[in-house]
Amino acid sequence: MADDPEQKLKELSISLNDVSKPIASYVNCVQTGDLLFLSGKGPRKSDDTYVTGKVGEDLTIEHGYDAARLVAIEHIAVLKDELGDLNKVKRIVKVLGMVNCTSDFVDQAKVINGYSDLMVSVFGEKGRHARSAVSMHTLPLNLAVEVEVIVEVED
Helical H runs in the chain? Predict the structure, then answer.
């Protein structure tokens, strides 16, 4: 398959972590029809710690970008767990990226590009999506970023 996301992950030397358990009263994913709604995830590192802090104070734009990229990897792991095969993804539809940042920080889009760029790298044109990138005064666990996503899948 020309745009095989499983192969792309190998080419990018990305290995997926086990899916993290929700930290409160929700589930990682809900399917309705051909849409998957993935709950917000944070930037979990391979040692099971999270990237925390405020972008613009504790973290640079580049740190935020890398954190958002980690969230994309988390969501890809959820998709793999849910679908068994990433080739069942028809389209990354809508992304909501939330950045824990200072009140004067205005480059949320540059931070969430870490998420978007990886989705396009892995899923090709199917990874291009509508998106919002917004600032938050704070996020759970002081996460640097949190992202939620809607994904269209094959029936």
Answer: 5-11, 61-83, 108-123
